[in-house]
From TrEMBL:
SUPFAM superfamilies: Nucleotidyltransferase. The lineage of its organism: Bacteria, Bacillati, Cyanobacteriota, Cyanophyceae, Oscillatoriophycideae. This is Polymerase beta nucleotidyltransferase domain-containing protein. InterPro entries: NT_sf, Polbeta, UCP020217. Residues 45-120 form the Polymerase beta nucleotidyltransferase domain. It holds the Pfam family Polbeta. It comes from Crocosphaera watsonii WH 0003.
Amino acid sequence: MTILSEKQRAEIIKQIQLAQSQRTERLATMKQRQQQGLKIAKNSAEILKKQFGVKRVVLFGSMLEPENLSPYSDIDLAVWGLSPNALFRAGATIEKGHEFKIDLVEAEKAKPYIQQAIVMGIEL
């Protein structure tokens, strides 16, 4: 068994406290980012429904949990009823005016693992 000196113990405690503080700060920052993302996702869902005739929109992916977010996390939206011809135009429209990248996923065409994530999402 290794015995630590008081100085070593104090340094380890200091590092642990710093890590805890940084985690708390990061989580608070990511919660703010999540709130911004949720607001943008809701606005985007309204635009998709009103301007592009989308029947249903579900937010899924990392935006649901602040612990899973990074400063570069995007907004994942599953859509039903979006014309394939309008996909790029709709995406460009909802990405204007904010810093978030938005991924539109045609739910009917999504791969099974994406569909599983969509099921865990929230309806907008």
